[in-house]
Amino acid sequence: MRLTISAAVLPSLLLLPCFLGDALAHPRPDPKTAWVRQGRRRKSSPRNLQVHSSMLSTCVESNATVIKAPKHNVWEGMTDEETASVVKWLFQQPTLNLTVTEGAGEWDNTIALVELMRPNKTDVLSYLDHQGPAPSRYAHVVLDNRATTDPHYADLLVGPLAITNQSTPSWTPLEYPYTRKTHGRVRNLDADYSTIYSEWLYKISASIADITLDLFNGTALGLDNDTLDIWGIDPLWQDDGRIIRWDTFWNMPTDEFDTGSILPLGLFFKSDVTGRDPSQWKLEGWLYNDIFYETTEAFRHAFFSTGFVKLKPNTEGPWAQTDQRGPILPQDKQQSPLMVAPSGARYSVDLDRKYVTWMDFSFYISFSRDTGVSVFDIRYKGQRVLYELGLQEALAHYAGNDPIQSSVAYLDSYYGFGPYAFELVKGYDCPVYATYLNSSFYVSETTHTHIDSLCVFEYDADYPIQRHSTSDYVSSTKNVYLTLRSVSTIGNYDYMTSYTFHMDGTIGVEVRASGYIQAAYYAHNEDFGYRIHDALSGSMHDHVLNFKADFDILGVNNSIELTTVAPVTRTFTWSGGRSRNTMTLERSILSSEDEGRFNWGPNGATMMHVINQDARNPYGEYRGYRVLPAAGTAHLTVQDSSNLAHAAHWAEYDIQVTRQHDHEPRAAHAYNSQDIHNPPVNFAEFFDGEPLNQTDLVVWLNLGMHHVPHTGDLPNTVFTTARSGVQFTPLNYLAGDPSRQTVNMVRVNYANGSATEVKTFGQAEEVCTVPITGIGEELWRYQGDVVVRKFPYNPNDPYYEMEGDA
């Protein structure tokens, strides 16, 4: 059999010691969808979409062993038929006054989201563990209600599913999962997005077009030949009952590279845009070269006065482009190393139920619009370790001397990790031999499917998991692990999220960041960043990404034990009355949520363990899992953020522990940025002093980094150092190291300078050839979206093509 491995070289042959399985096959719809996102805003409708009539959202092939999951995946998304039935039924409800998104304006009500409402843990455990019925399925619907002077988003619960002519569905405001009790409603500050530009920002820009031509050789007028862009802060200022914008000018890219966020121009203006009537909006001033002008007239007068200092603009050039440049490195044109899986996948997948098993692990995969990929019911050696592990929210909080950098604190689930989890690049994002899965999400009466946007693969680390040598032998064990990965490109940043599973029972989650930084204009920004190009400052910012880890160690009732390595002076029975300076272990159990918010201790001295006090090992120690930072972590530096108020209290500590409640499923809400003083989910309200000793616990962990961009971040930040991770590893959980079970180890006995015995413990020893072919063919198959129309829905012809697409 032939295993095709992609590499950007001429064909060659590898000799590998094993049997070759079938090559991984992938779905191949012919056309590619080019849904190109611009800026950091939610798209109201997709553009430039193409589909292929033979492609289904569930069409995935893999060389993984096909199995059937023991239970239905109750966290999996809705089917095409379920989504279509919900959308159709909603349009039949006259009180909702809905308009199809494609023809809607800023004063219409539309459907923003339809996805599965994840069932309550209480109901799921009854199904998984006690032979109870599968939880009823309901849809989580978000309406974008703009046919009012008070536009708002409305969360609804619709169901039960599926909706048929014989069923009796209903909708109710979705309020119980949120701390804010306003019938699932939160205001929409972006309801007039188009009007803001056409009737406000572009008109303001036109009033100084002569100045922007002089300073930047360009204009921003909303015309096709614009060379400047305008965008600003997020979230908007929301103090004292007013809605305030700060906006600035950016040079537009002059080629295909996405360089806009590193081309700031240093001219800012402030607006009061309270309400929906543009005639009541007010321009409140201009800022240039750290001088504030209260009116356009004052700014114009200063500009045309003698002595006005004009600063140089940031302009695009090769420095901002990501293609290869500079002298080619020695030997770099030779074939680079690559991994192969000569026996095919050594894991099993139920593609329909998104269920994976590998060695002694099993888990279900779930995907949502807001937070992307999550993992449920993670079991090790048949025992559940984690009920849920998944992203909750991602924050990028900036600081700077100018009002844009000082006011930006992106809460990225507003834009959504799901819509921007694009197809992975085979051979680069993941190995070519990985198993690739699709992801789907609802947009504008259609379901988008991103082909091959999740990958599952085994990998051999660049170091062994075990090694030891003596004068008689040397032993070493391969460090093979399984990865589930996705990449979401949200605005300028690409976030790579990897869930890993290891031979010693360790479970890990790691996030890496790459892409273009959002830079500041260099003038007067010395206290907030390095000057990294002619007129550019690397704007300092914190990345904080919150993950939920709902542990169930040998049952749902667990405790948190803190064990600290502490210096101590102690006298021993054998020390002859002399005190000795040494160290000791100090152990404590968290008693309540009042103690449940803390940071990693200095010197890494405090260890956190999730234990079950009702389960001891044969030596009397509590069985559990240790939680430890694996690649650096960070919480928010800013205290009592002016930008966030109560919208992101989850970012304030490294670790936070609460009692599990079905009404507290998530640390944040996608629309927290729309009302920062009274957000839908105020995480601080989770902490009300409840006991934590031997109860169902949730650990909320923050990954992140303090990012001060330097010249090495141009053109893009690199994954090498922009990374953060955490691991959960067995602690007194098993009788020994479970990685001893693998046969992928070797012991070489030797004496008198030569080997006397080589033990390979039953590893495959066959030799086979693997042709290595060019990667170009694989990359030319890159596809993008598949779009299925949900209203009106025709199951015999579901595919939707936007007008003007070829």
Description:
With 806 residues, this protein is mostly beta strands. It is built from seven helices and 42 strands. Among the domains are: 78-185, Nuclear Transport Factor 2, Chain: A (Roll), CATH 3.10.450.40; 190-302, Nuclear Transport Factor 2, Chain: A. The strands form six sheets. The protein has a 22-stranded mixed beta sheet that branches. Strands 4, 5, 6, 7 and 8 form a five-stranded antiparallel beta sheet that branches. A five-stranded antiparallel beta sheet has the order 9-10-11-12-13. Strand 5 and strand 6 form a beta hairpin.
The whole-number mean of residue pLDDT values reads 90
CATH architecture of the domain at 190-302: Roll
Q: Which of globular, elongated, flat, extended, rod-shaped describes the shape?
A: globular
CA-to-CA gap between the ends? 39 Å
What is the percentage of strand-forming residues? 35-45%
The strand count comes to 42
The top level CATH class name of the domain at 190-302: Alpha Beta
Low-confidence stretches: 1-62, 798-806
The gyration radius over C-alpha positions equals 28 Å
